[in-house]
Amino acid sequence: MTPAGPGPVISVRGVSKVFEGEPEPVIALEEIDLTVQAGEFVSLIGPSGCGKSTLLRVIADLVEPTRGEILVNGKPARQARLDRDYGMVFQAPVLMDWRTIARNVELPLEIMGVPRPERARRAAELLHLVELDGFSQRHPWQLSGGMQQRVAIARALASNPLLLLMDEPFGALDEMTRERLNLELIQIWSRLGATVLFVTHSIPEAVFLSTRVAVMSARPGRLSRIIEIDLPQPRAVATRETARYFELVTQVRAVLRGDGADTPAIASTNRAGW
Ligand code: ADP
Ligand code: MG
Questions:
Q1: In which band, very low, low, confident or very high, does the pLDDT at 267 lie, cut at 50, 70 and 90?
Q2: Residues lining ligand 1, CB < 6 A?
Q3: How big, in percent rounded to 5, are the helix, strand and coil portions of the chain?
Q4: Which of 48, 70, 188, 263 sits at 20 to 30 Å (Cα–Cα) from 177?
Q5: What span, in angstroms and rounded, lies between the C-alpha atoms of 108 and 178?
Q6: Residues 155-166: tens digit of each pLDDT
Q7: How far is it, in rounded angstroms, from Cα 182 to Cα 21?
Q8: Which of 151, 149, 119, 117 is nearest to 132 (CA)?
Q9: What is d(CA 141, CA 116) in angstroms, rounded to the nearest whole number?
Q10: Which residue has the CA at smallest separation from atom 17 of ligand 1?
Q11: Residue of 37, 17, 258 lying closest to 162 (CA atoms)
């Protein structure tokens, strides 16, 4: 387990990212400040190309920031990656076709040198968590897209990370599967007491899942607003039918359109120090 330090789980300070390119450089991120505390579920939402993936990738140390500082569990992003402080889930489930489902889930543990019986035990436990008991000896191509994405989530959880970085993990799924996985994810999150940073372009998904929604704007990529989602926990199917849920969906949509800037009902930021 990753020890829970006293400070924030993620601290992004003055981060900018410029991709050099033709005909001109792309400012993917400009002066991003974001703090995520332990146990939060924060969604990043914004139009395509506004820098959501780039922000997640600089936090995961897959992309180097041009400026600024990133701390994960109080340490530099690189150290946190080396320490396997988080699990990452990408938009497409990146599974290895020649490995069984169980051995895909075990992969991070194999890399960490965890002994075989312990790996097998852990994989079985995780496959149970994502409701894939009985599929451990199948191969990825024998599973539906939704099932493959659940395998990717199980694998991301394999090393017991208390932090999950998820980049549109349900983007390619049909609405029904997506809503079911939303419920599963929120249950995993509360059961493990984990912290999640989640990229999506779905407003209903962001509002349903999150404790806060960070709205980004494009060109250059900036954080325009953070909205507190004060819906009661635990979230359930009925949450999507409450008046407050619809109100928050409308607020997030207004901020995304850029016309909600002065709406007093919207939490005016800064509670969690960004
Ligand atoms: P989002 O995930 O919000 O759709 P991205 O973070 O993928 O946006 O991209 C933000 C901007 O940075 C886009 O204009 C994109 O074309 C550019 N970009 C992203 N990655 C690279 C890269 N490796 N090289 C050059 N430009 C990139
Ligand atoms: Mg993206």
A1: very low
A2: 19, 21, 26, 28, 46, 48-54, 221
A3: 35, 25, 40
A4: 48
A5: 26
A6: 998 888 889 999
A7: 37
A8: 151
A9: 24
A10: 28
A11: 37
